[in-house]
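Quarterly update, task 2.4: adenosine-5'-diphosphate-bound model.
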Amino acid sequence: MYWNPHIEQADLPTLRALQAQRLRDTIAHAERSPFYGALFAKCGISTDSIRSVEDIRRLPFTTKEDLRSHFPYGFLTVDKKDTVRLHCSSGTTGNPTVIFHNRHDLDSWSNLVARSLYCAGVRDTDVFQNICGYGLFTGGLGFQYGAERLGALVIPAAAGNTTRQIRLMQDFATTAVHTIPSYLFRLHTAFAEMGLDPARDTALRLFVIGAEPHTEEQRRRIEDLFGVKAFNSYGLSEMNGPGVAFECTCQNGLHVWEDCFLTEIVHPQTLEPVVEGEVGELVFTTLDRQAMPLVRYRTRDLTRFLPGTCPCGRNHRRIDRISGRTDDMFIVKGCNIFPMQIEKILMRFAQVGTDYLILLQTRNGVDEITIQVEMQAAWFTGDLAALEKLARQIVHEVRDEILVTPTVQLVEPGSLPKSEGKAVRVRDERQA
Ligand code: ADP
Ligand code: ZN
């Protein structure tokens, strides 16, 4: 049932005591870095400041800007010769940031990914095809070493070349795939173009999807299209990469691995903890990292803690799927809008395909939203009256959700630009 029963089933007092001990160790490591050394001295913080996990609130936050302004070595706690690998974030929101690991850190990370995969149902009998960028992006090597640690047969397929991906799946009877959710739709189209049906012509049984925001509706579509269960994987380079929070087979939120990440959810403006169960910004403190520990790192990702215990028996708290990032949000006519609010509505329409683009433009000094929506091939017919009616329905439902009236353009399947990596959902063409 569990990869690491001792940790996964630990009761809460045991888990909190372990966290407090590891938090002290983390502070001791962190103060050896130039950045935290100076910061802790300024704030009068030492390991003595920490008696319990609640004392985390005495510590200052760390931001992406801090990482950037102390690039590249300002957070390093060990001699450079003792580090063995570095990774960078994808740079979705600006300059990349760099994270260094020593041997211990990589070992701990591989265990976390193995634990995560096991928790979603991957086993050593699986053939695990890892379809994502290898290199600086953490999804490649992160899942590679984690799935190897688990004992699966790993195909380091990397990203792109969809025909070859399908061939690999057939040649080696791939059973589990990790990739970004938007790619699975492209993969499905390729299967159809090759006259293949994944349910009939492959051994696929499980997907691990993550690295980009997606709605529950999008996940269900993936599961229906392939007849394969899809599990949500959350992580970020600053917290190693994958293996921070993962869905178990109950698919009712993501367990955060609390032995390795002290997790808080705070109000993005006041930085005070939100009321339990409310949405706020995720903040993590690493609890098992030596070369580059991070204290109260503000992820900008928005979610909430889910109440109750999980039937799987793991006591590590669950978070809801990420509803957006604070820097994803755009403001139109005074309304704060997240792309996932729009995706959620679009995916309710069976006629709608899987790709869409939200265009923000200024016309006559007024901000406007245009949503270009790819249709399902079967519905993209010459029946203009039906298309217009559908567009009107979508406008209506989106307006109810975001409180701004968009323009909806229904476009041909496959006509929107596809990005190589994470899907780009918003194009902001407004004049500053
Ligand atoms: P970048 O910030 O440049 O995209 P990363 O490659 O480290 O850098 O990506 C981490 C980010 O990807 C997270 O902070 C989060 O916004 C997003 N992300 C990762 N996994 C998920 C997921 N399962 N659901 C939604 N968003 C995710
Ligand atoms: Zn569970």
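Highlight for this quarter: The first strand starts at residue 85 and ends at 88.
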